From TrEMBL:
It comes from Fimbriimonas ginsengisoli Gsoil 348. One of its GO terms (molecular function) is enoyl-[acyl-carrier-protein] reductase (NADH) activity. It comes from the Bacteria. This is Enoyl-[acyl-carrier-protein] reductase [NADH]. Substrate binds at residue 94. Pathway: Lipid metabolism. The lineage of its organism: Bacteria, Bacillati, Armatimonadota, Fimbriimonadia, Fimbriimonadales.
């Protein structure tokens, strides 16, 4: 019960295969009350089904594309959850064309959509909910190795993840005076609904499996374990860091 008595948010969850759901599920099993986020009413039905029959779950909605919804999120959180001990940012999106075409062909509109959904949504959420964060709270974002290495078919999302990781460091600086930690978990390629938009995903997973030092599979469960570590008091001395969960692939040169 690493998170017994804690309350927090996981934003957003699409289905049972999402990393966000794996984190929310484990955090709840470790004793936390979890506010589970969904982008809209249709996806809220999925979230509601996931938590059916479970205790210590609430549901909220926010579509990060609309500025007015951040204030609505705060109202929902105040009513359903109250003060927060953690926030998990599990949101990223880029138009399919921006992933399929060459990076150099990314349009201004595609770039703005991807950055808004994948990066701005993190610190805008933190700004809106800062008054609800308890001292010593924890914020966790999800990133990927494409932030520092050029990867075919990842394109503008790699640029977004680089900006996301920089945002983690600057948020850590802003919020550190209150003991609030901001970190990121960087899983290797995992079969999720979001990742399905990346061409060659199966080949990426196979390559990592063949190359990584640990010759065993990893997935949502391992990513969730790393996130819950950051949410727990075990990580009180850590902020502004990126934790790789990829069986060690990120340390291998060739």
């Amino acid at each position: 019960m690493l998170l017994e008595g804690k309350k927090g948010l996981v934003l957003n969850v699409t289905n049972k295969r999402s990393i966000g759901w794996a984190i929310a599920d484990l955090a709840n099993r470790e004793g936390a009350l979890v506010g589970l986020g969904a982008q809209n009413e249709r996806l809220l039905e999925n979230a509601t089904e996931l938590v059916e029959g479970r205790e210590r779950f609430e549901t909220v909605t926010i579509d990060f594309a609309f500025e007015e919804q951040f204030a609505s999120l705060r109202e929902q959180v105040e009513t359903k959850v109250g003060k927060l001990d953690f926030i998990v940012h599990s949101a990223a999106y880029a138009p399919r064309e921006a992933l399929e075409n060459r990076f150099i062909e990314t349009t201004r509109e595609q770039f703005e959509i991807a950055m808004n959904a994948s990066v701005y949504s993190l610190f805008r959420t933190c700004r809106e909910l800062e008054p609800l964060l308890n001292d010593d709270a924890s914020i966790v974002a999800l990133t990927y190795l494409g932030s520092t290495r050029a990867m075919k078919n990842y394109n503008v999302m790699g640029v977004c993840k680089a900006a996301l990781e920089a945002s983690v460091r600057y948020l850590a600086l802003d919020l550190g005076e209150r003991g609030i930690r901001v970190n990121a978990v960087s899983p290797g390629p995992i079969r999720t609904a979001a990742a399905s938009g990346i061409s060659g995903l199966k080949d990426m997973i196979r390559h990592v499996g063949d190359t990584a030092p640990l010759k065993r599979p990893y997935g949502q469960e391992e990513a969730a374990g790393a996130a819950v570590y950051f949410l727990s008091d075990l990580s009180k001395g850590i902020t502004g860091q990126i934790l790789f969960v990829d069986s060690g692939y990120s340390v291998v040169a060739m």
